[in-house]
Design brief:
The chain has 428 residues and is mainly α. The chain is 78% helix and 0% strand.
Length: 428
């Protein structure tokens, strides 16, 4: 086998520098036009990889598995930190109905569609459908909800939905991958094993979280607490996995308990004051997330496989998946908003279907795991991300024109600060 050609260090640094600059420019373009940065980053990756051949897929693919897992852990940790228990208690019921109907319904429907159209076995179809079945990305949805002047309850509803859909997609993906890897034909036994895996992960994450909170509470005034926190995230993942549980769920629990430390203080004898650390984490989170998202989506484009025979067929599959997603989003939104005081925003909620980092990460993990049809998964997921972001952008622009909002006010809202951690939640 011929050795894989690797680019020289100067070329790599030049490409990374170009990627970061383009990512920053894409963020500015998003604030000016409402068109998500993801699209440009993916297209840039396709350009410098499959089209121009400046960086080969073979050179980057061996490292993408680790990078994808790291990205996934950051998504789970920060997603947990941003989840507020009071918002879940007050507004979680409707959001949960939305998530269950949308994620479960679209995942099953997409799997059956792929099973009959492509003649894939059911488990392979379920693995792909779990990646794209109902996930929405907060990176696009939340800024657009602010800019469109949607009500606070609608914004909270969409924020909760984006947090929960990501978790559901991740859980379903690893469940189906576990079924494939065990080769079990008895689904009941397999789900019992998975339930045990998740239970161990949750319990391990909860126990470790209390210990880490006590450590962080004592050391938060010192230097490098952000780096220490990241180290504890990785330790939590490692211990949760070594104990036979889901390390990903352990990290999610750690982030959730850290984000809701005030509740733990009320329920225990611990006297925690984590607000300074939370603010520090919030600042670093935005910077790290920008860097990781920028590099990741360019890498996703780099791993794209261009073959003339499959471009049209994969794009057609992406369009079919998009139609299924919109259908189930209409159904889910109709059910979850029925009789609510934000049902007037139903049309905007339906079009807030943009997908992002989670399906992309899961697609890369599928390649790293050597799953069947992994390259096809990667291409189809890339198409779905582009298509759903285009639909969301078009929906936002249509609302601006329909309601005659000032376009400059809409654009200025994309650069405004994030909403407060505990916004008013919709009435259940």
């Amino acid at each position: 086998m011929a050795p894989v050609a690797t680019p020289d260090v100067v070329s790599v640094f030049t490409i990374v520098a170009a990627v970061i600059i383009v990512g920053f420019g894409g963020e500015l373009f998003f604030r000016k036009t409402g068109i998500p940065t993801f699209i440009f980053l993916i297209l840039m990756g396709i350009l410098i990889g499959p089209v121009l051949g400046l960086l080969s897929r073979a050179a980057i693919l061996p490292y993408m598995g680790v990078f994808a897992e790291l990205t996934l852990l950051m998504v789970l940790f920060y997603g947990g930190m941003d989840t507020r228990y009071n918002a879940l208690l007050r507004g979680g019921a409707r959001a949960m109905v939305q998530v269950l109907t949308y994620v479960v319904g679209s995942t099953v429907a997409i799997a059956l569609t792929l099973h009959f159209l492509l003649r894939w076995d059911l488990i392979s179809s379920l693995i792909l459908s779990s990646m794209v079945g109902g996930e929405t990305t907060a990176a696009v949805v939340i800024p657009l909800t602010r800019s469109l002047k949607l009500s606070q309850v609608t914004t909270t509803f969409l924020t909760l939905e984006s947090a929960m859909t990501s978790v559901f997609s991740i859980v379903l993906f690893f469940a189906f991958v576990g079924i494939y890897q065990t080769g079990a034909t008895n689904w009941a036994t397999t789900f019992q094993v998975l339930a045990s895996n998740f239970s161990v992960g949750i319990v391990a994450g909860a126990l470790l979280s209390v210990v880490w909170l006590a450590v962080l509470n004592r050391l938060q005034e010192g230097k490098y607490t952000y780096v220490l926190t990241l180290g504890l995230v990785f330790v939590t993942y490692a211990i949760g996995t070594r104990l036979g549980g889901s390390g990903e769920l352990s990290v999610l629990v750690f982030g959730t308990i850290l984000g809701n430390y005030a509740l733990l203080t009320k329920l225990s004898s611990l006297h925690l004051s984590m607000e300074p650390l939370q603010k520090k984490l919030g600042v670093f989170q935005e910077e790290i997330s920008f860097l990781m998202d920028t590099l990741f989506f360019v890498f996703l484009g780099l791993t794209f496989v261009i073959t003339r025979s499959s471009i049209i067929s994969n794009l057609n599959i992406g369009v079919v998946i998009l139609l299924v997603l919109i259908l189930f989003r209409i159904i889910a939104t109709g059910i979850s908003t029925s009789g609510s005081d934000f049902s007037q925003d139903r049309g905007s909620i339906i079009l807030m279907c943009a997908q992002g980092i989670v399906p992309a990460t899961l697609a890369v993990i599928s390649v790293n795991e050597g799953l069947p049809h992994a390259d096809v998964y990667l291409n189809i997921v890339t198409y779905v991300i582009i298509l759903t972001n285009l639909v969301t952008s078009a929906g936002a622009i249509m609302r601006v024109r329909r309601q005659k909002l000032a376009f400059k006010d809409f654009m200025s809202g994309l650069g405004s600060p994030s909403p407060v951690d505990q916004p008013e939640a919709p009435n259940p």
